[in-house]
User: Fold these one by one.
Assistant:
Number 1:
Amino acid sequence: MSYEPVIGLEIHAELQTRSKMFCSCPVVDPTTAEPNSAVCPVCAGMPGTLPVVNQKAVEFGIRVALSLDCEINSQSIFARKNYFYPDLPKGYQISQYDEPLARNGRIQIRTSRGERSIRVRRVHLEEDTGKLTHIEASPNSGKGIAGHTLIDLNRAGVPLLEIVSEPDIHTPEEARAYAEALQRILRYLGVNSGDMQKGVLRIEPNVSVRPAGSTGLGTRTEIKNLNSFRALERGIAYEIQRQIGILEGGGQVQQQTVGWDEGRQATFLQRVKEGEEDYRYFPEPDLPPLIVKEAWVEAIRAALPELPEAKRTRFLQTYQLREYDAEILVSERTTADYFEAVVQAAPEITPRMVANWITGELFGLMKETGGTLTRLRVRPESLAGLLTIVQAGEINTPTAKSVLAEMVQTGKTAESIVETRGLRQISDAGSIATLVTTVLQENPNEVSAFLDGKDGLLNWFFGQVMRAAHGKANPQVVREELTRQLASLREGE
């Protein structure tokens, strides 16, 4: 029997607000801040404290929901999600469920199987949990000495946006494409850095399989807290095969929560999965309904930036780029902005040439130096200046690459580097004709061999002329003049 995977994704994105979801504690970098340094009675769950909703977090949530073509609910309800949370002191999470911030959206994805639209079930706000660090007992700590767990509440209460898809995904590749598309949108909107290694974006796929051609849903398992796209693909692929193996062996898949072991490349059981009723949702008594006015929604909509998919389409149509180049350039908003700034600064340069230099040579240098566009010392107008010099034939491509490398290191303009180092290319036809004549006169044996039919010596002569010109001669003019003079010698035989 053949099986069809059915996959839905829950993606948790921390919102880049300055303060937490329900209190004024600052949002700090969990990798650098002192543990438990951004904690107050509210996020520590002290009795008698009252939460207050962070307006900026709501605005960010609406911004994301609108970008996903969701319907914004004029009223949403915060609820208590009851569960044993060792990293949330109050023992429950304030979240949304029955009446979320938004619902019924979609994300467009492209895979090797074509383009598809994946439905978004809901977008809702909640608070993040703290962070637990488990330390195993040392082998030398003595009999009966157990390990211990450290808790850091800096992350507890940080605004979290959960985006839940419908079970419309059927391959690991589609799951990755969906997650990557959402990550790009979040970055374009400026609401989340997309840095999965820091845990600010976490993915939890729900995976099930069913007989091919059927419409029912199989029993699902949830893979918790994946923090890379590679783990997402591999974890889903493993779960699909594990579940198929169980069914083909006559067994039944259990609803459970599993983790992903990167070392073993396998999932492992964490707990039997709870149903929604186990969370005992009920409206948060300390928070009134969240009312969102239409005028505010429309103001947020009007301020939305051009999103990646729309920008990609425009780049293809306006600049006639290749699909690959357009995809690379729109992957980050800073990259797309940089590209357009260079194009605007050098209208005589074709956009394809600009794209080739950015995605090729410039990205290569940035990879070597570990730099980013936001810290790059080569401003768009400086790169435009370099390409203008190349287009005018004043320097050749190899020279231009060395000039760009120096620009990245020093921040100097191409013009100043070319002048200081005396790199300007010789394009004068008379000067190049003299160089070619000299080289041919100094190498009579090679000229005779060429005239006898060794056409491959043309490249050797080219190299000799370029050496005589210290690499500054225009290659195209050199080749044309060589061809002309050698043809003239053959005709004179």
Number 2:
Amino acid sequence: MRIPIYLAVGALLVRATEAQVPPPIPLRTLGTILATGTSPVGALVDIRPLSDGRVLVNDPQKRQLLLYDASLSNPIVVADTTSSTQKAYGKGGASITPYLADSTLFIDQTSLAVLVVDPSGKIARTFAVPRAADITFMTRPTVYGNPGFDGKSGLIYRKPVLSLAAPRGAGAPVTMRQDSAFIVRADIATHAIDTIGAIRLSGSNTTTTIGADGRISTKRIMNPVPTVDDWTVASDGSVALIRGGDFHIDWVSPDGTKSSSPRIPFDWKHLTDSAKAAMIDSIKAIYAAEPESLTTTVDGVKRTIARPPIPDVVEPSELPDYMPPFGPVLPPFFVARADADGNVWIPINGPGLRRTPAYDVVNRKGALVDRIQLLPGFTLLGFGPGVVYVSSRNDQGVGVLSRVRIH
């Protein structure tokens, strides 16, 4: 599902909804920009702020792991793509996850290794990943949610659930569907895997069918406003399972204790039958209006990209009666994150919020304590005590890293 479709849906909702009781806290923008780096960064970097203001930056596109000073400049190389050194990054994906104190776990997809990076940027030790088959889910931050650490010995990440429909009779096709995921904890010492909970995904209903002749076919039925769940790991190691159906959080503490907090106030928007029908018709029209192919130039080479197949869309009656509080993960914007002060930042739906994301900030008790909208062009990357780190583009169009005061 492509981002332009969600932008179109947001525009439709402005005209098609009825306001309910709004949250008691108005949206506001972030505080003062405290520092902006001079070294260029990509839009999709993965960062790990340290307690003294230095920042470890993982750039998967350049395949570099860099440690910036407190001014967010003067990076030193922790890992790069030079195979002749002791700092080889690898050819596959990698991610960084906060570990004990100011140390960091660098998880490398190519070597199936977990490197412990100490506060000085040196590799302190290396050990094998807890489960090699799950390496993709540990090294794709924002796509599968941000892996975290429970403060003891558990690495927490999202693992898809694949439902398999048994064939009915000889020669009948086998059907696979993926509409949910498990959140699991992998012990980095014993490699034991425990399931923490489950979340709903289902931005679209994708069915893969394997026929008796071995041929594979895929059919996608898109739901433009699905009701989904999200998740993140709080600063105390607790896992927050954020429920989109009634907008509350189920908590799982590092010791396994489970609890639920009250519903979070939200300006629910009612979708009338006519609004649902108009939404479906508009989405079909958007796909039909796109060109059959698009020609682009990559590294000086012209490439022609064919238009993706026009998906089927659910019937209007299958859409929810109220606009969900948040939608499917759309990296790098729409993914829940936990700040350094014990709060969970939940990206919320609303008119105009797709280009300038807004977040409901919820504390460990599940209470709404703040509502923050980013400035245009800002992408939220991570947190330090009382601050948030964002990427943006400077006057020359170069991506830069900034530290911004939350209040």
Number 3:
Amino acid sequence: MSLRVGSRGTVLCLAVFTAALIATLAPRAQAASPILEFASPGSSFPIDFTADGGEVTAALANFDTVVHCTGSQGEGEIVGPRSTLSQYVFTGCKAEGGGEDGAACHSEGAGTEEITTGRIEAELVFIDQAARQVGMLLNPGGGIYMEFKCGGESVKALGSFLSPVGPINTATTSFTATLSRLGATQTPSRYENALGERREAIPLGERGANPLATTGVELSFTIRPSAALEIKAVTAAEIEARQREEEAALTKKRQAEEAAAAAAAIRRQEEEAGAERARRARLLSGGLVRCRKVHFRRVRVRCEKRVKRKYGSKTPHIRLARPGRA
């Protein structure tokens, strides 16, 4: 089917309308989502791990006493692409400062100077996508995850807290998870959810009958999974940049293909035009040759004019010798 358009303005309007229609009907790209997950090719979840740490200090706001432990260790398992379950044991724990200075700290049923945790749920999160900082959000389910006594007064720990973890985007059998504090405040205390929204993670402590107060813990763990793992961390901005590069490459490829097709079409047109010119030239030459054989000049002239009108209008560069005989 062919469509004839009467003017360049109409052609332009038609092109604009077609482009607008394509833009309306084309699927719109959705906002990119970041990639953040544990990956272990060849292994399936759950994957066991151990955690070995050193000294631990923990402070509770509004109290002078600091809990200090000389050693720490833990174990757990990575149960899914972003989730872990773990529990920990702290040894050589004593109170430092305040009225309980020097008192041993321990959990119920644990050994002397030993504090144990319950099962702690954790989720892999971006602490800061722009800075490519990744961490574990521990105790996302809430509730009390640790109880102990220093002397005769009980302490309960609850609320979520963050532990930066690394390395990222590297397959390894050893990760580092770090807890840091500024006095009785845990740092960092904010992270990004799956939508990139900022959320707070503030651990709390309860001492005896006193109100809840913020806590800060300082500790560094070396985490050793039973299989090589990679924490894949690709930000939304990186994914969008990659998508733009791929789209630009596809656009460039499509433009090159269209240009090649257009050049091929032009070559075909030129070849067809050349063949047509050659055909008309042959017909013109043959017709004039026949005209030259006419003996009567007037008839010969009319013959030549007729042949030139028919075959010579599109071959202005063809010149044939005039008949020698009048």
